[in-house]
Each structure stands twice: as C-alpha cells, then as structure tokens.
Design goal:
Blueprint: E1 5-6, E2 12-13, H1 15-33, H2 61-65, E3 69-77, E4 80-88, H3 96-112, H4 117-121, E5 134-135, E6 146-148, H5 157-168, E7 179-182, E8 190-192, H6 196-200, E9 209-211
Helix pairs in contact: 3-5
Length: 215
C-alpha cells in the first residue's frame, strides 16, 4: 500500500516528489565533482582585456631614462604612421651643419630599433632596417641636403614614409618641413614632403617629391 505524506498545508507529496528533493544534494555533489560550481549571484570576472590598437597601458620607461634631446619618430601601427617619443644624443658645441646630420642619423637609428615590448604589444612595428647611415651634402648639393647609404627608391613605401615624415618633423628638415634627400649614387636629389594622406596610408601612398637641381 502506498504511504501518503501530507505537508504542513495538507498537500500530498508523492514518493517521486520526495525522491526529487532528496536527489538535489546529490546532483550538487556530482556537479562539483565535474568542475562545475553553481552560483547564486553573477560572477565578476573583471573588465575585458583592451583590444584598442596603438594604445600602450603605461609609459615606456626606456624612453624616459635614455637622456639626450627629446624627439619623435614615426612607427607603423594599424596601417598608419604614429609618433612615439625617443631621444638622440648630440655633443655640446656641434656646428649647425654637423648637428643636422647627427640628428638625422639618430632619428634613423631609432627608426631601425625594434619597438619596445609595450610598443609591440600595442601593435607598433617598423619597416626601416638597421645598418643605414646618413651623410651631409656633397660639393654641388644644396646645403640642407641629406644622403642615405641606401637609395631612397630602393626602400619600401612604408620605410620611406617613416623616414621622410620623421625627418620633416625635426631639425633635419628645412624651414617649410620638406626634406631634400638622395642616395649614394648619382641619381638626382629629390625634395620630399609628408602630407596627411601619406601618414594615414604609408604602405600605399609614397611621399610626394620633386627633383632638385644641383647646377
């Protein structure tokens, strides 16, 4: 004969209902054994990791402790040119002409350096390769001309854009921000500029230039 259990309000509990209530603690134990923990309130896992490109979580200490003259160079990030802080060392008492060349070489060296770990994590890269040097004008060149050890036309569009835009924003440029640049060969010097569209798309837009007469 089936036993009927009455609750406090006279409601009947069938054996099946009683079995379901008894099985709840067992189910919780089984779930815990499977690595699944029941929760009564929403769990706070903290903020989602940032995926914003070209944004470093904190200042790059290496650029703060290197000393020298504060400068900015253009690195590649998210398909654009983005400035980062650097510094170059120039000996005291350096003449103006030699100073321009030393600034240009320092900027070139910084462009060729592998970006720091925070910069790499933020998506910064460089297309400028190491070992390149820069020198001053030859005898018939304009006094503000600079010559690279690699012909500018042999550089990738992005590397050329990095160099021109970095030089144009420094003491290596002329007063109007243009840069007279050539290579080690006899190819004509060219006057380069760094417009907004080049900064926005350096891999597809080469810095505009015009030929410079040396006669």
């Amino acid at each position: 004969m089936t036993t009927v259990v009455r609750g406090r309000e006279g409601r009947r509990r069938t054996p099946l209902a009683s079995l379901s209530l008894l099985s709840l603690p067992l189910l919780a134990v089984l779930l815990a054994g499977c690595g699944i923990r029941s929760t009564q309130v929403p769990t706070d896992f903290g903020p989602a990791p940032s995926r914003v490109p070209c944004a470093m979580s904190g200042p790059d200490i290496s650029t703060q402790t290197s000393g020298g003259i504060p400068v900015q160079v253009f690195l590649l990030c998210s398909g654009q040119l983005v400035t980062v802080d650097r510094s170059v060392r120039i000996p005291d008492g350096t003449a103006e002409g030699a100073r321009r060349v030393l600034v240009a070489q320092g900027l070139l060296d910084e462009l060729a350096e592998t970006p720091s770990t925070p910069e790499q994590q933020a998506g910064y890269t460089t297309d400028v390769r190491g070992g390149m040097t820069v020198s001053g004008p030859r005898r018939k060149d304009p006094e503000d001309a600079l010559r690279l050890s690699t012909p500018p036309q042999d550089l990738t569009p992005a590397a050329l854009a990095q160099i021109i835009c970095t030089f144009s924003d420094s003491a290596a440029a002329q007063d109007d921000g243009s840069v007279i640049l050539g290579g080690p060969d006899t190819a004509p010097l060219r006057r380069y500029e760094c417009p907004t569209d080049v900064r926005a798309n350096p891999t597809a837009k080469s810095p505009p230039s015009t030929t410079v007469s040396t006669t």
